[in-house]
């Protein structure tokens, strides 16, 4: 059984006598109570995704959800006659959520038992608990950001994006260019900290350490001139992805210490992690410093280790770390890299803005990009010349 303190990212609903009153196939005039509707809307506003696992004929059940005015709230509905554990598993896999982040509600004890047996980390609730779900800690995020409120819409936009990709016949890089992707890397402001904290808590596959940074700690780091908290956001022609990454850096005279890099799994397919690392490596190259990155292995973050290794980080010892007395941690690998010049990404436009003045890049004639500096706003835009 999952730890109840772990936030629920997706609630999967049964329909008959759980979401609505009555049994659709028995000809009942099923009704959705105002109280249950309020639960659906409230969870959605908190950024908790919702789906359906119901034993019903798909088309009539979906039409009923549409008539009741709530179909838009449910992603990846599984309406059919297979085991509900398989339905819940497919939903979690499609969302790339760990089972510990998924909950299931059903009026039938046998259905809950079947899901609990096959998916022991999924939390199961009875229909009698529905109205109390918003009051439970696992359904009550510490903060609710604008990205949280827009999370369902972002996922729905991503499904449309994925469908277009499936129909695209050219190379993957051409499809990514067609999205008109823009990545922005900026210093975290007070308005960003809630989302930054959420990223450190919610990300698992693409989180280099699995460490949660609280709002208080993040504010202290933002106020510390020796540290930088950077937030990464993305958008494309389908709409905004919101804040999708956080980078926590301690900058010393001889090396920069990357204490945390975490990115949302929603942007893995865009190569976001590699773009961020290459940008940071290039910045360190300009500054003439080495890079040291913390990596703490978890059950879920093997992808992040691969990203670090692919970028060139290794466990080779270097005097730069010992010279500045970084305290050893038996649970943390200290990966090292001597930076080199990295080209701007060819599949997206990268914009850095609102960075400390010491981040201002020096002009380089060797870079094969067109750069534009706006001294007043301190904005640097880099676009590969072959995509102009």
Automatic annotation (TrEMBL):
Residues 368-379 have a biased composition (Basic and acidic residues). SUPFAM superfamilies: Acyl-CoA N-acyltransferases (Nat), HAD-like. It comes from the Bacteria. Residues 352-388 are annotated as: Disordered. InterPro entries: Acyl_CoA_acyltransferase, FkbH_domain, HAD-like_sf, HAD_sf, HAD_SF_ppase_IIIC. This is FkbH like protein. It comes from Streptomyces iranensis.
């Amino acid at each position: 059984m999952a730890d109840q303190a772990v936030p629920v990212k997706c609630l999967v609903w049964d329909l008959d006598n759980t979401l609505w009153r009555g049994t659709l196939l028995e000809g009942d005039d099923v009704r959705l109570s105002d109280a249950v509707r309020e639960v659906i809307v409230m969870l959605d506003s908190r950024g908790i995704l919702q789906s359906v696992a119901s034993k019903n004929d798909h088309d009539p059940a979906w039409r009923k959800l549409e008539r009741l005015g709530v179909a838009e709230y449910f992603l990846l509905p599984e309406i059919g006659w297979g085991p509900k554990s398989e339905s819940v598993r497919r939903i979690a896999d499609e969302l790339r959520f760990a089972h510990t982040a998924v909950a299931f509600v059903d009026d039938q004890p046998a259905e809950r038992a079947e899901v609990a047996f096959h998916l022991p980390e999924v939390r199961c609730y009875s229909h009698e608990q529905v109205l109390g779900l918003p009051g439970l800690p696992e359904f009550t995020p510490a903060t609710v950001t604008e990205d949280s409120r827009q999370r369902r819409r972002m996922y729905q936009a991503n499904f449309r994006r994925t469908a277009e990709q499936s129909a695209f016949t050219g190379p993957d890089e051409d499809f990514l260019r067609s999205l008109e992707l823009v990545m922005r890397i900026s210093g975290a402001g007070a308005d960003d900290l809630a989302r930054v904290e959420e990223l450190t808590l919610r990300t698992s596959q693409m989180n280099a350490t699995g460490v949660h940074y609280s709002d208080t700690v993040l504010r202290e780091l933002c106020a510390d001139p020796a540290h930088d908290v950077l937030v990464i956001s993305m958008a494309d022609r389908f709409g905004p992805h919101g804040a999708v990454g956080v980078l926590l850096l301690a900058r010393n005279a001889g090396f920069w210490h990357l204490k945390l890099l975490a990115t949302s799994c929603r942007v893995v397919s865009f190569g976001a992690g590699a773009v961020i690392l290459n940008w940071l490596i290039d910045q360190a190259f300009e500054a003439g410093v080495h890079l040291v990155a913390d990596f703490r292995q978890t059950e879920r973050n093997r992808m992040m280790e691969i990203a670090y290794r692919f970028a060139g980080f290794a466990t080779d010892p270097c005097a730069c770390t010992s010279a500045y007395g970084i305290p050893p941690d038996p649970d943390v690998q200290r990966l090292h890299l001597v930076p080199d010049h990295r080209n701007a990404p060819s599949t997206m436009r990268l914009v850095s803005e609102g960075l400390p003045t010491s981040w201002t890049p020096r002009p380089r004639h060797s870079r094969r990009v067109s750069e534009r500096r706006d001294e007043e706003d301190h904005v640097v835009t880099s676009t590969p010349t072959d995509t102009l």
